[in-house]
Amino acid sequence: MDVVGLERALREQVDGEVRFDAGSRGAYVTDGSNYRQVPIGVVVPRTVDAGAEAVAVCARFGAPVLSRGGGTSLGGQCTNTAVVIDWTKHCHRLLSVDPKERTCVVEPGLVLDELNRQLDRHGLKFGPKPSTHSHCSLGGMIGNNSCGASAQAYGKTVENVRRLENLTYDGTRMWVGPTTDAEYEEIVAAGGRRAELYRGLREIIHSCLADVRQGFPRIPRRVSGYNLDSLLPENGFDVARALVGSEGTLVTVLRAELELVPVPSTEAMLVLGYDDICAAADDVPRLLEHSAPTQLEAIDDRMAQLMREEGAYLDSLDNFPAGESWLLLQFTGDSRDEVDQKAHALLEALGRGEKDDTVAFSDDHDREQRMLKAREAGLGVTARPPDGRETWEGWEDSAVPPERLGDYLRDLKDLFTEFGYDRPSLYGHFGQGCVHTRIPFELTTAQGVATFRAFLFRAADLVSSYGGSLSGEHGDGQARGELLPRMYGPRVIEAFGRVKALFDPDDRMNPGKVVAPHRVDENLRLGVDWRPATPATHFGYPDDDHSFTRAVQRCVGIGNCRTHQGGVMCPSYRATGEEEHSTRGRARLLFEMLGGHADSPVTDGWRSTEVRDALDLCLACKGCRSDCPTGVDMATYKAEFLSHHYAKRLRPAAHYSMGWLPLWARLSALAPRLANAALHAPGLARAGKRLAGVSGERDAPVFAEENFVQWWRRRASQEPDPHDPRTVVLWPDTFTTHFHPAIAKAAVRVMEDAGFGVAVPTRAVCCGLTWISTGQLGVAERVLLRTLDVLRPWIEAGTPVVGLEPSCAAVFRSDAPELLPRNEDVHRLAGQFRTFSELLVNDTPDGWRPPRLARIATVQTHCHQHAVLKDDADRELLRRAGIEADVLDAGCCGLAGNFGFERDHHDVSMAVGELGVLPAVREAAPGALVLADGFSCRTQIEQGGTGRRAMHLAEALALALDGPLPADRPERLTTRPTVPRSASRLVTAAVTAAGAGAALGATALARRHRHRR
Questions:
Q1: Engineered SS bond to 300: which of 99, 325, 481, 796, CB 3.0-4.6 Å?
Q2: Which residues pair with 802 in a beta bridge?
Q3: 712 Cβ partners below 8 Å, 6+ apart?
Q4: Are the C-beta atoms of residues 245 and 296 closer than 8 Å to each other?
Q5: Which pLDDT tens digit goes with each residue over 495-527?
Q6: Residues 6+ away with beta carbon under 8 Å from 930
Q7: Is the pTM of this model over 0.90?
Q8: CA-CA distance, 498 to 793, in Å (whole number)?
């Protein structure tokens, strides 16, 4: 294949982003499966027509094509040595809605949650809802025939598709759907390729009518194989539904007409406890006999155990009744009385009551969602168990008739035991007989891979003996394609091949999947030939066997980093829509960087420019540390990478200007007015920013004329005894000390009011945050060691250390112990470090209450607090202070420390802020408090055109000690450093004059020199 010519033709003829670089290819090497194939290139079309043109260009060059949506496929459907067409960045429009007919037309890249958000005003939604609903695309759902828990009520995607606009590899573009005999005759009479396809499909189905009618399992979750049953005469010869679930192996879906369902008015949840998961499965037929739930889900004891060990979804588990395994039934209706009656009628039929300890009932929507989140979390919770055994997909969604589910589970558990696969969790959509699990396959040794293969064939025979399906939701891809003959007879398998040959005779559409598939043990992401580097690192990676390589493997491709709303992860993806800028895409590139495979597109290890560029827009917000189901910590990986990438090399200017900010801030204390005037002087400031690698659109923060430590020394307070239980150390972080000292003063006042004796280190200390975020880890280690020496008396006394800046507190709780894993003092300090709210909620003397503010507040939680520290104590302190808090769930503010100040980051920084935080602050009532404990958050809010200035909670409480706050913009009472314009103009004039004087002097010297000659 002429790859160079292919790339050139795509660039010339396709309205889209054409990427054949190593970084783009590396980001798309795998999906959510066990498989890995390096793409030829990636095309991101700006329109559906441009996507069609990309297919046409590929066809001229004979290049394979792979359409990709959210990229979460678990069977290997979304990885191939092909030109990958990513539809999600641009082709995501809802084209039309017909509320009367309850239909809509969509483009393939539209995300399910976004579709349902737009449909909400019509009281409609798309029925199927996979657990990846926040980021899966409609095109991907159609390709996979996705289901989710709601399929209990609404069926699989195939049952909800009315028509499809498809494109074949040879360029035939057509709308297809159910076909009457008259329509069929009209199509055939028109001739051409469309007639050939329809005639061929009818010939294929007529040649195997009995085989399809008898050989296709009659179960709710038959997803494996092509949907030949949709072509049966009694099913309306529905070509659209026949193509659903074909995984991009037959056609490219350009648009889809979908059937919609009404959004139910009311929901209720019933949770039933059982002794074990098999007993729960045995009860499913009885539950379905006496009720018609919209969801019937299962969670077993192993999954609950993992949640408890990982400290995940504990609030969900707290709502569960007694038992070792549970069934969750959701009922919907037009009123609360209706759904309550459905649940209670079932309980009566079962001989149970709402007050039984094995029964939990709720008609509270928020509580139900917490319960369901525990079930949706299954893949992430089970992927990396705390015991260190990695689990893998491969047999993760088999399905059987619900009435035979209990016996199937017993046999499946016996099979696990026979193969030595100890205690995989069993959960899933039990109302439809679909079982999810992840199994601890060994995929890096020859014996392990051989056992993996043998197990899959035995499991395929087992599920087939129950009249079940290899896949009940995730499709076949490479994971199950080779197993299809164990499920279907030879005539059906032959029919699948004929359909493939009809649509794609040269096998260019996602080849190696479903028909003529690769072996289940080929193209493994790991495999026996995987030999990754195991580099020495700065961070200790204590939860990953002290291995950077293992840490990078945490990403299993779930794709929650591609969500568009809620949580923090991943702000750069939300702003750019780029796979490379998602946590998953970056993890993929780091995996490739380690060089485990000979064909890796990333070949230069730590020096990789592709990895550097992908990490450049990582805000290091740490959102993935908490929001990623498997705990990927990209901020740490980025710092590690930068430390090696720039080792013994010149760094970007911003690494010196902002990475060394604590030093520059201390030097500024010698002449803060002069420093401020220079940083804000017209002309001079712009030149300085260019030299420092700082964005010209940003205003430099203003240094305080008297910083906090200077004020503290002047205050001359007697230092309290470190051993006194009322003593606390207030941590003088760089940002609060030098830029917003009023916050520290306010904190001192409040803590003293609460009965504490406050100590402040007056020798230079620093957490090393700015050096960590810029990857100067050797410097950070030395800074931390010096800080530990200064704090040693308080560390030895066990004195609480209180941080006001969340990012600095997070360093002591997480980064510092991982950077100095063998230093006992750093671990002691991590245990002693408190946030301001934690101290006042948990450690104050009995009887102290915070001053009451009786205000509403818009609250932005710093990303590092969200990820590491959590905000439970903040919420409680706000409650005690009488503050009605609207704690934003709007993601990162976008500034993220040095990120938003760096050159070329301003636009992304502001785009992230505009996704939620900045609009929310603009909408805050004039009398509301705007609270943000993080310096970055306050700066972004102030510089983001909100017209507001955020306060630290310490400032709000200190102001309340003096009485009621102003009715309008209470932040007016806080103080912030300012720069007199006259001083800046004087500096500019002085510099200009100096420059002019120097020029005149040089001219005079030159003339004198010429005169002498």
A1: 325
A2: 730, 834
A3: 732, 760, 762
A4: no
A5: 999 999 999 999 999 999 999 999 999 999 999
A6: 857, 858, 860, 921, 924, 941, 948, 949, 950, 951, 971
A7: yes
A8: 79
